[in-house]
Structure to design on (1033 residues):
């Protein structure tokens, strides 16, 4: 036989089923939101498995094309600390997608069936033979190139002609997949012979190494040993870019993912906070409603502890059910999100997984949360005066304090609306908590939209600084020399050209990108301190640099300071003559005179530049046509080139930022869901509590629409108060997110909090509030007066 | 007195109606979960205009059920309920709400005032719902009714600032808002001390003297004895009328 107090604990759950469900749903959302913290572990785990199976390189060096014999490769493989080496031949080109030419590269890999480093895994079809290609799985997933097995890929060769290669299947590689996603570049895999035929040049231009020791000293020593070994190869003039190093725990896109996760955590913590407030509110209502019953129990001899335990057990039971549902929700949500993020941003199919730590934390919060949230209310309720509680009829509660007096002054609205507004004062704490949750949701959305606007503004601004309409780059086959420059200038529609090139660098422990540009440039720089380099400095190849504000802040670089840049030509000391507020390369660019960089990098860079081209019209179709003419003209003269049209790049950038902010907003919608549950909960509670009152109103002539107006006014008023609270919350959160962008992503963005968003948020809040209170309102208007009067 | 736009009650549907209230063969059963229990088992009852009728009987005998049927709060399981020529059992909830607001004033044991409205606002609420007259006329009417019950001086007080007796006076003023022919009280003095209960009954008697039909439920034999007629209910049937 179960003791009566235990039965009462269970009965509390079934007695108000709607409220129990609200509480369970809220708990499930809270517990489910904790599940999102499992994402880094899940994606990290899958990535590490993929890194291991694809044997990703620890060190990658790039050079001009080198003909490496098996003996020379064996010597490289036998160097101390080298576990394995894989030579590759990259050919930057374009592939026809219908009638359009899209940027692409073909990766020539020797012995595809037995790759040792940076393995391309065959997903479907068969490995390509000479004249055939394998398409990277991400090409079709991201809609760049949908060539199925058996289709023909039309690849632009170095001589400008088009060579067709049969697609034999689909391959997968993390690094190449990231190139597809991040750079919108089509990737095809082939044999070195195929690449030789396309490029017209024999040899490998990239070497990938797996190392035994990935410590920085060991990597530096190995790099030196590789450089020394390659010096014995005819044609080696040095590395064409800084060697790329990957430490043991790193995977492609990990730093980007971690940055993203920081934003994501802010939103998740807010969701969790909203859920906890809602749980506390629900538990308080549950206990407060029982005041007269608690008095009855006290009157017949129950001790405070015994009464308290009735509700503690109820809270625990609610927690148990909520936790069970929440665990399932959290596991499903984190796996769905990780799978989406994996395929959208990181070129990986993440398998199903569970993080034991997060699971434990979810269970702990799910079971303890409701009990802890209920304790203050239980404490208050068990200390209630028995006589007063037993005699309370509830009809004279409320209406006496300053808020009530203020609400009574609102007399210009219909009586039903007045009653609704005045009812706000009757459950102040609950209404305020509900409004706060609505405020958190509104604030979260305002902040995310504000952040998206700020990032979009920054992206547009960064592209606006580009004076060129198109950038023409060599593909590593033949550098663009002065003859190529003359050819570009001769193309009808070209107004102005300017040489430039970019190179990777590191300084003060951070990666950066050197933009080698002219002193008088079409690039729109914005100097905040010091000056841009002068023609005299350019002529004298002065070792001067202009540093962007973000990377200067990150590295602690000051105007007038000397900094040491690591370059492919070795370390070099440069004098900082200016700080610029531009945002190129996500804030990591530094600007050096093009002549100075030629001197620093030596023959690999001195041979040729990229070219910025301004066209005579900024019409997009005109730019497209002129670009095609430039490509064809140069190809006809033996200069295979790649082109980057600025308006296309800007659109791609903005679209990728939108994907990111949309993802954060989707996660933020958890808060919206919680706040809507809170609002529906509060309205249901109000309607339940005032069932008798509704009956009285019906008895003195109130029609269904009068009742509807009373409660709708109350619900909408709570939502509007929530919206008002959401404005400062949103502004503060927007400031926090912008601060995070500054300190985590190291990009300078200007806070954006558009006023029109406030109006849109108000309309959305009222609409959503109107929708969620429909069901409780229906209950209120369909109550039969007799039933309402008998309601207890 | 207030303007005629406030005082026009709904006219009787049938000019031939002789009784204000007529219950014929009324049965009422309530369902409580899986159990159904009969509250009234075939009640025939008539009340004429201008009568002052007390309904008495032990707890659970069906007194309040009769009141609920007469005011359209509940519907009979069988039989017909006709008040002022209107067949209440044939009307829908919305029509009943409007009819109640216009034709009947109800006074409850626990007053049931809206706690956030002042005395005068409570007293004018039925007029607001019935959309009768202008806002000013409604206010004047409510104030007039508060004067009738002796509470004009506390028109702006909230229920929490009034005593039990004063709250019940406001409830009576509210019941009179639309100048109904019928005033119904469900143990209107049950929550008041003897002296206040006596004063309250005087008020009912005065309303009756002014032409209103008054029907009230009471446990108090003294108050019941002061009615023109006493209807006794026991186990869901009228044993004396």
């Amino acid at each position: 036989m179960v003791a009566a107090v235990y039965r009462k604990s269970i009965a509390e759950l079934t007695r108000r089923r709607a409220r129990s469900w609200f509480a369970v749903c809220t708990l499930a959302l809270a517990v489910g939101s904790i599940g999102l913290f499992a994402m880094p572990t899940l994606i990290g785990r899958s990535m590490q498995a993929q890194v291991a199976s694809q044997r990703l390189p620890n060190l990658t060096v790039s050079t001009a094309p080198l003909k490496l014999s098996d003996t020379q490769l064996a010597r490289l493989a036998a160097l101390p600390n080298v576990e394995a080496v894989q030579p590759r031949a990259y050919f930057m080109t374009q592939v026809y997608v219908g009638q359009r030419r899209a940027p692409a590269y073909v990766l020539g890999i020797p012995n595809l069936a037995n790759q040792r480093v940076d393995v391309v895994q065959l997903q479907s079809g068969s490995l390509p033979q000479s004249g055939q290609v394998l398409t990277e799985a991400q090409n079709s997933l991201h809609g760049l190139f949908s060539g199925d097995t058996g289709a023909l890929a039309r690849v632009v060769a170095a001589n400008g002609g088009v060579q067709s290669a049969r697609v034999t299947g689909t391959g997968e590689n993390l690094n190449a997949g990231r190139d597809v996603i991040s750079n919108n570049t089509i990737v095809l895999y082939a044999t070195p012979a195929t690449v030789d035929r396309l490029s017209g040049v024999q040899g490998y231009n990239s070497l990938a190494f797996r190392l035994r020791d990935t410590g920085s000293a060991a990597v530096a020593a190995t790099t030196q040993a590789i450089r020394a070994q390659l010096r014995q190869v005819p044609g080696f003039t040095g590395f064409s870019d800084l060697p790329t190093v990957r430490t043991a725990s790193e995977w492609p896109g990990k730093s980007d993912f971690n940055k993203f996760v920081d934003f994501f955590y802010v939103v998740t913590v807010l969701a969790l906070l909203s859920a906890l407030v809602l749980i506390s509110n629900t538990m308080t209502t549950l206990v407060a409603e029982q005041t007269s019953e608690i008095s009855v129990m006290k009157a017949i001899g129950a001790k405070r502890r015994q009464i308290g335990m009735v509700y503690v057990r109820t809270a625990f039971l609610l927690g148990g059910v909520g936790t069970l549902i929440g665990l399932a929700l959290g596991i499903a949500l984190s796996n769905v999100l990780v799978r989406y993020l994996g395929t959208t941003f990181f070129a990986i199919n993440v398998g199903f997984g569970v993080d034991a730590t997060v699971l434990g934390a979810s269970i702990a919060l799910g079971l303890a949360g409701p009990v802890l949230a209920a304790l203050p209310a239980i404490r208050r309720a068990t200390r209630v005066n028995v006589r007063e509680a037993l005699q309370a009829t509830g009809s004279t509660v409320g209406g006496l304090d300053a808020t009530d007096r203020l609400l009574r002054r609102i007399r210009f609205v219909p009586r039903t609306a007045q009653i609704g507004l005045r009812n706000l004062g009757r459950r102040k704490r609950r209404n305020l908590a509900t409004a706060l949750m609505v405020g958190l949701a509104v604030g979260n959305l305002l902040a995310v939209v504000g952040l998206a606007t700020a990032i979009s503004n920054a992206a547009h601004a960064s592209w606006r600084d580009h004076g060129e309409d198109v950038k023409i780059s060599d593909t590593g086959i033949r550098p663009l020399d002065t003859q190529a420059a003359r050819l570009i200038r001769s193309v009808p529609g070209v107004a102005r050209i300017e040489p430039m090139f970019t190179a990777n660098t590191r300084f003060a422990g951070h990666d950066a990108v050197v933009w080698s540009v002219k002193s008088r440039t079409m690039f729109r720089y914005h100097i905040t301190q010091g000056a841009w380099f002068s023609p005299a400095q350019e002529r004298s190849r002065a070792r001067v640099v202009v540093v962007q504000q973000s990377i200067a802040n990150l590295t602690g670089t000051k105007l007038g300071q000397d900094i040491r840049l690591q370059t492919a030509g070795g370390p070099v000391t440069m004098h900082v003559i200016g700080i610029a507020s531009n945002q190129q390369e996500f804030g990591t660019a530094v600007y050096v005179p093009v002549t100075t960089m030629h001197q620093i990098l030596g023959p690999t860079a001195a041979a040729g530049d990229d070219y910025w081209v301004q066209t005579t019209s900024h019409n997009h179709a005109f730019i497209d046509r002129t670009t095609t003419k430039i490509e064809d003209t140069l190809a006809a003269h033996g200069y295979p080139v790649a082109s980057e049209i600025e308006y296309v790049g800007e659109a791609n950038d903005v679209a990728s930022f939108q994907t990111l902010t949309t993802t954060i907003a989707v996660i933020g919608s958890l808060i919206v869901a919680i706040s809507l549950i809170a609002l529906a909960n509060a309205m249901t509670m109000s309607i339940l509590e005032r069932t008798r009152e509704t009956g009285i109103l019906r008895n003195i002539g109130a029609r269904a629409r009068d009742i509807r107006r009373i409660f709708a006014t109350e619900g909408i008023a709570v939502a509007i108060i929530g919206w008002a609270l959401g404005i400062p919350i949103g502004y503060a959160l927007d400031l926090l997110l912008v601060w995070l962008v500054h300190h985590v992503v190291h990009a300078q963005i200007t806070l954006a909090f558009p006023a029109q968003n406030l109006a849109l948020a108000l309309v959305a809040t009222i609409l959503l509030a109107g929708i969620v209170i429909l069901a409780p309102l229906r209950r209120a208007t369909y109550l039969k007066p007799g039933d309402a009067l008998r309601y207890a | 007195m207030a303007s005629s736009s406030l005082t026009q009650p709904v006219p009787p549907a049938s000019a031939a109606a002789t009784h204000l209230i007529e219950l014929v063969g009324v049965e009422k059963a309530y369902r409580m979960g899986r159990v159904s229990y009969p509250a009234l088992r075939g009640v025939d009852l008539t009340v004429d205009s201008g009568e002052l009728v007390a309904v008495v009987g032990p707890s659970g005998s069906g007194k309040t059920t009769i009141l609920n049927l007469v005011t359209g709060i509940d519907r009979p399981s069988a039989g017909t309920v006709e008040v002022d020529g209107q067949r209440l059992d044939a009307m829908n909830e919305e029509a009943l709400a409007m009819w109640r607001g216009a034709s009947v004033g109800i006074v409850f044991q626990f007053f049931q005032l809206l706690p956030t409205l002042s005395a005068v606002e409570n007293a004018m609420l039925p007029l607001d719902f019935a959309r009768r007259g202008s806002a000013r006329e409604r206010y004047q009417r409510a104030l007039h009714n508060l004067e009738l019950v002796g509470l004009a001086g506390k028109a702006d007080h909230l229920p929490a600032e009034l005593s039990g007796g004063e709250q019940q006076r406001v409830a009576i003023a509210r019941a009179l808002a639309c100048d109904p022919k019928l005033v119904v009280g469900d143990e209107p003095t049950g929550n008041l001390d003897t002296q206040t209960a006596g004063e309250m009954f005087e008020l009912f008697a005065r309303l009756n003297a002014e032409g209103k039909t008054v029907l009230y439920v009471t446990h108090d034999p003294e108050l019941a004895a002061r009615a023109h007629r006493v209807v006794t209910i026991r186990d869901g049937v009228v044993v004396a009328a």
Summary: DSSP finds eight helices and ten strands in chain B. The interface with chain A takes residues 68, 71-74, 93-94, 96-98, 100-102, 106, 108, 110-118, 121, 125-126, 128-130, 158-161, 167, 174-175, 177-178 of chain B (CB under 8 Å). Confidence is low (pLDDT under 50) at residues 8-17 of chain B.
